[in-house]
């Protein structure tokens, strides 16, 4: 702020622009997009052809003023400002077009504005000035689909995110590494600009990669088997089953005994497109017939067309066992997608039928379908309106929605069939919640209290292996664990990997992880709960055991960190697992590094995620020096790649005159509240950590709480060491050993599944290499 004159203004801006504004769920979010783009066009940040500017301005007028009236005299927009340079002829064209939007509500006009704006060439593109290797001026554009290069405002090159394997910078060189070993260098003017371009590239890649994964839910093999069995039992074969399924579902009123001749439909108010609107339509299919998007006149009587960007399921006539492609002349590839989607939706049809019409299950239940069974649970709230259970996950957290806690004496704890922790939510009162956020799901559950029946109907998928016993009053489900016991333990690495793969496919491995104790019974947390130490804890429930905590050699000896020792027949690893330092605990952190004689610090989080501080920056910038008590830290270099940052520090004890070299490795590609979609970068990072480990050196590892990602890395490093030794490997045992030393290590089920899948991948790749001559 030096050299600037007050007053200062803070502007709220949209940073990441998705390619399809119709997929924005909230009207307020679309309004913010509208305000941002209007401002960018008005102030010249977003170039816009004159013809498109007229249409956009007319929508903006409709949003602000509403319908055109006779009281609007010529020149009523003379004081309005839409472009950096506009004339009376431009405003006259806007006034002529405004009356054609009559009937559009504010939200509808803004959505039409966004659909027009997304056709602009530079929509959603963040531009950075640079030069190529021959010093030709360029603009590097970061967008939702990749990196574009503009020369004289003409796109000369484009690199999709999927073709980019690495993004890095060194001083003033910004490098994009492509597949087939091709590297495209660009030269920003100054080093700070180069670093900003690299950082923004990483942010764009992370954001749009996570968005794509959250919009494309994966269906595992066991789930499809369960769907297929349910369809065979309840639906029979052939006949059209569903028309479309999006969000909330409404059954056709003519429902007879058989479901095979019925279909689901959704009533969704679409965005409206007035005449003379630029064509951004995409072909629509209904009953196997292509149909263009209707105009606003047609929409008066047609409410069943869908807004663009939504997941749409079409009528699909096929028997359960058929491999037939899609109808209506669609491509074979698209047909494959239809078959998978409709197979899932057939099961949803049965579930909605049970929820809406309250059909009771058989008095004596049929044998279970196996792991992944679907159960319908009905719960009525108590007199205070509470159901007595909590949920976790959601599309915003990149985690499956599941029951996280059930209060024993609550309605959820007494219902039949009983609701259990770990049950996965499929439907809530007939609504598919696979694409909803955590807050939306909580809202749906609370809203059921206001319904006529006040009953909550949950369709759940139960994980684990079940034994069923029929009784006079119903049935009882009895759990019997199927994790490898001592008698079932494999004696070879190959057998243990086969057990690991079977456990992942059946879901039993995740079930046993969820039933593993989070804190080891009997271990005390007394020191961490002392009044003088409570403010040194980032999270009040993530505390070190007294028996394994790191004790500092000072009067204030507390730090939220734990000694971790991993022992195997052929090796022993020593680590310190710590929370991310707070502003007032940085001195303690560096004191711990010095006293434990650590030469490598592993950081598994960024400083802020989703607007929340995850860790304080406890190190200086390159070429700077900072002092923390009697320790001085100087940063010599900082090298950045797409996945991690390497920094070199010198740590000096000012009283003793001793100094040590410390390497800082920060992994920046881990999404918050989830796991990476592909473990390749993470595995590369773990191998980098292992290569830098010196003998029996103690590593310092931390994320934000020091339990989730930290536990994943330690588990993965231990697994790689066991794989190299060719010894049997059981990830659940590794996690149990870690939780014996620090509570809640490997925090979530998806983290445990991620590390198990990564272990299996490394094993199979090594097997493939060893079998190749």
UniProtKB/TrEMBL annotation:
Residue intervals of the Tyrosine specific protein phosphatases domain: 680-753
Protein location: Cytoplasm, Cytoskeleton
GO MF entry, a single one: protein tyrosine phosphatase activity
Segments of this protein annotated with the region Disordered: 266-296
Domain called Tyrosine-protein phosphatase: residue spans: 509-762
Keyword entries, A-Z: Cytoplasm, Cytoskeleton, Hydrolase, Protein phosphatase
Superkingdom classification of source: Eukaryota
Cross-referenced InterPro entries: Band_41_domain, FERM/acyl-CoA-bd_prot_sf, FERM_2, FERM_central, FERM_CS, FERM_domain, FERM_PH-like_C, PDZ
Gene Ontology CC: one annotated term: cytoplasm
Residue span, FERM domain: 1-212
E.C. number: 3.1.3.48
Domain annotation PDZ: ranges: 376-448
Family annotation (Pfam families): FERM_C, FERM_M, PDZ, Y_phosphatase
Listed PANTHER family: TYROSINE-PROTEIN PHOSPHATASE, TYROSINE-PROTEIN PHOSPHATASE NON-RECEPTOR TYPE 3
Family: Belongs to the protein-tyrosine phosphatase family. Non-receptor class subfamily.
The protein's name in its UniProt record: protein-tyrosine-phosphatase
Organism: Gadus morhua
């Amino acid at each position: 702020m030096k050299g600037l004159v007050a007053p200062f203004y803070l502007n709220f801006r949209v940073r990441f622009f998705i390619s399809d504004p119709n997929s924005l769920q909230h009207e307020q979010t679309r309004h913010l997009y509208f305000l941002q783009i209007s401002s960018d066009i008005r102030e010249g940040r977003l170039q816009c052809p004159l013809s498109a500017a007229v249409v956009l301005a007319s929508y903006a007028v409709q949003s602000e003023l509403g319908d055109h009236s006779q009281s609007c005299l010529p020149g009523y927009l003379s004081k309005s400002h839409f472009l950096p340079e506009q004339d009376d002829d431009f405003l006259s064209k806007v006034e002529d077009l405004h009356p054609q939007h009559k009937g559009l509500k504010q939200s509808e006009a803004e959505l039409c504005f966004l659909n027009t704006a997304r056709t602009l060439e530079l929509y959603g593109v963040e531009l950075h000035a640079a030069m190529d290797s021959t010093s030709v001026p360029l603009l590097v554009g970061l967008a939702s689909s990749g990196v574009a290069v503009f020369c004289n405002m003409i796109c000369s090159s484009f690199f999709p995110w999927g073709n980019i394997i690495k993004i890095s910078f060194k001083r003033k060189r910004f490098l994009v590494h492509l597949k087939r070993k091709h590297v495209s260098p660009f030269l920003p003017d100054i080093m700070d600009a180069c670093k900003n371009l690299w950082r923004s590239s990483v942010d764009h890649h992370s954001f749009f990669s996570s968005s794509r994964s959250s919009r494309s839910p994966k269906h595992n093999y066991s789930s499809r088997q369960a769907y297929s069995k349910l369809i065979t039992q309840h639906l029979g074969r052939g006949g059209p089953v569903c028309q479309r399924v999006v969000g909330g579902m409404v059954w056709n009123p003519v429902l007879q005994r058989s479901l095979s001749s019925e279909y689901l439909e959704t009533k969704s108010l679409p965005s409206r497109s007035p005449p003379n609107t630029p064509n951004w339509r995409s072909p629509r299919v209904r009953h196997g017939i292509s149909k263009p998007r209707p105009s606003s006149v047609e929409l008066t009587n047609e409410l069943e067309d869908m807004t663009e960007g939504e997941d749409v399921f079409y009528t699909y006539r096929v028997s359960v066992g058929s491999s037939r492609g899609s109808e209506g002349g669609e491509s074979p590839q698209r047909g494959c997608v239809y078959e998978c989607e409709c197979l899932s939706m057939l099961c949803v049809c049965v579930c909605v039928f049970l929820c809406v019409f309250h059909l009771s299950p058989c008095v004596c239940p049929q044998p279970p379908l196996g792991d992944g069974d679907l159960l319908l649970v009905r719960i009525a709230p108590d007199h205070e309106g509470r159901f007595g259970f909590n949920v976790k996950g959601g599309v915003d957290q990149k985690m499956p929605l599941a029951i996280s806690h059930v209060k024993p004496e609550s309605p959820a704890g007494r219902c039949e069939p009983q609701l259990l922790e770990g049950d996965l939510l499929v439907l809530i009162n007939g609504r598919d919640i696979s694409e909803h956020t955590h807050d939306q799901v909580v809202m749906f559950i609370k809203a059921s209290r206001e319904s006529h029946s006040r009953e909550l109907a949950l369709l759940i998928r139960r994980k684990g292996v079940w034994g069923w016993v029929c009784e006079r009053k119903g049935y009882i489900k009895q759990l019997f664990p199927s994790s490898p016991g001592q008698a079932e333990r494999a004696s070879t690495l190959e057998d243990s990997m086969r057990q690991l793969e079977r456990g992942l496919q059946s879901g039993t491995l995740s079930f046993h992880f969820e039933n593993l104790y989070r804190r080891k019974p009997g271990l005390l947390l007394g020191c961490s709960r002392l009044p003088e130490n409570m403010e040194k804890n980032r999270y009040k429930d993530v505390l070190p055991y007294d028996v394994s905590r790191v004790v500092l050699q000072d009067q204030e000896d507390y730090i939220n960190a734990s000694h971790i020792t991993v022992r195997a027949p052929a090796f022993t690893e020593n680590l310190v697992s710590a929370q991310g330092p707070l502003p007032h605990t940085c001195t303690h952190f560096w004191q711990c590094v010095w006293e434990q004689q650590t030469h490598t610090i592993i950081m598994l989080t960024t400083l802020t995620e989703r607007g929340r501080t995850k860790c304080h920056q406890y190190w200086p910038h390159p070429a700077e020096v900072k002092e923390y008590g009697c320790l001085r830290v100087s940063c010599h270099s900082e090298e950045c790649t797409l996945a991690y940052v390497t920094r070199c520090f010198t740590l000096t004890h000012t009283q003793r005159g001793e100094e040590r070299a410390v390497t800082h490795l920060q992994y920046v590609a881990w999404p918050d509240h989830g796991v990476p979609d592909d473990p390749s970068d993470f595995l590369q990072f773990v191998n980098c950590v292992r290569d830098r480990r010196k003998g029996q050196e103690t590593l310092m590892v931390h994320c934000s709480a020091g339990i989730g990602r930290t536990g994943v890395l330690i588990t993965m490093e231990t697994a790689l060491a066991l794989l190299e030794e060719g010894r049997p490997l059981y990830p659940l045992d590794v996690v149990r050993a870690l939780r014996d030393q620090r509570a809640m290590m490997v925090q979530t089920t998806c983290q445990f599944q991620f590390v198990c899948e990564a272990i299996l991948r490394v094993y199979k790749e090594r097997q493939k290499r060893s079998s190749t001559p």
